[in-house]
Amino acid sequence: MIHTRFSLSGPLMPTARWLVILILVLPLTARFAAAQDIEPRRWSHLPIGANFAGAAYAHTTGDVYLDPGLQLQDVEFDLETFAVKYIRSFEALGKSARVDLTQPYQSGHWTGLINGVPASTDREGLADTTVRVAVNLLGAPPLAGKEFARYRAQSNNETIVGAGLVVQLPTGKYYEDKLINLGGNRFTFRPQIGAVHSWDKWSAELTAATVFFTDNDEFFNGRRLEQDPVYTADANLVYTFRPGLWLASSLGYAGGGNTTVNGASSDNSQSSIGWGLSLGVPITQAIGAKVGYVGTRTQVGTGMDTDTFACAISVLW
C-alpha cells in the first residue's frame, strides 16, 4: 500500500492559490493511498499458531491531474517503498484469526511546472505503520499441524466469510510546515468484510471496506483537514497450480473522500479504478516469493494515474 501526501515546492505563489492547491492536491493523494488496497488472498485459511515474516519492495510512478486554472502542470512522482511485515495467526472465540503489522520506509521524488517554471522536491523516511486484525466468521476452522493439513487436503469446495479492521497509525515522518509528508498525522480506520469461495483449483474473493479518517489539526501551518469516508471494493480471481504456486487477477474501485480545510469544502470527491496481476512462487516449504503489478486510473477530471511493480519474500515458522 502507498503512503504519501503530494504537492510541490518551488517559486512562491499567492497564499490563496497555495491554499487551493493544498485543498485539491494533498487530499487527492491521501485518498489514493488509503483506498487502493488491492490484495488477493487476504482471507486465506492459516494454521493456528503460525508466524510469518516478510519483506517487500515496490516502485510506483504516477501522473497527477489538476484543475487547469491552478497553473500547475505536468505533475509527476516517483516513489520507492520498502516494507517489513509480520503476521501471527491465532484462535479467537472458536474462530481462526490473524494480526498483521506492516512498517514501510519510503523515498520519493516529485516534479512539475508552476506557472511554467520547473519545480521539484524529495522526501525520505518512515511512513505510517498499519495494523490489521481479521477473523474468519464462516469456514476456515481453527486448526494446526496435521489436522490443518488434513482439512485443507479434503476441502475442494469451501466458502469463507471474514471481517477485519485495518488501523493506520500516525507514526510516519511529518512536518507541519511542509507540503509533502510521508506520514499522514492522523489515524485511519478501515473496517472490512470479505468472502472467498473455492472450488477445485480456483477461488473467487470479494472485499468491501469503508475508510474513516480522523482530523489533522496540524495540516500545513496549523490548518485543520477533515475528510469524508472513502468507499472501496475489490474482487480477485485466483488459480492455484499447486500449494504455494498461484496466479491472481484483481479489480478494484474507490470513491468518495471529499475534503474540508478550515471548514471550507473543496468539492473534490474522487473516483478511481484499479487492477492487478500477481504471482506467488514457493521457494521451499517455509519460504515463498511474490511479484505483482497494480495500476490505477482516475475516472474524473482530477485525480491520479499510477503504476506499481512490487516483489516480496516471506518466511513461515
Would you mind describing this structure in some detail?
By secondary structure, the protein is mainly β. The chain has a single domain, classed as Beta Barrel (Porin). It is 10% helix and 60% strand. The strands form 2 sheets. A 12-stranded antiparallel beta barrel has the order 1-2-3-5-6-7-8-11-12-15-16-17. Strands 9-10-13-14 form a 4-stranded antiparallel beta sheet, with helices on one face. The protein starts with 14 loop residues before the first helix and ends with a strand. Mean pLDDT is 88; it is low at 1-34.
Portion in strands: over 45%
Q: Can you tell me the residue ranges where pLDDT is under 50 for at least 5 consecutive residues?
A: 1-34
Q: CATH top level?
A: Mainly Beta
What is the CATH homology-level superfamily?
monomeric porin ompg
**Could you tell me the mean pLDDT?**
88
- Please estimate the helix content: under 10%
CATH architecture: Beta Barrel
Structural class: mainly beta
Give me the number of helical elements.
Answer: 2
Tell me how many strands there are: 17
Q: What's the shape?
A: elongated
The domain tally reads 1
Order of helices and strands: HEEEEEHEEEEEEEEEEEE
Strand order of the largest sheet: 1-2-3-5-6-7-8-11-12-15-16-17
Largest sheet, described in full? 12 strands, antiparallel, barrel
Distance between the termini: 25 Å
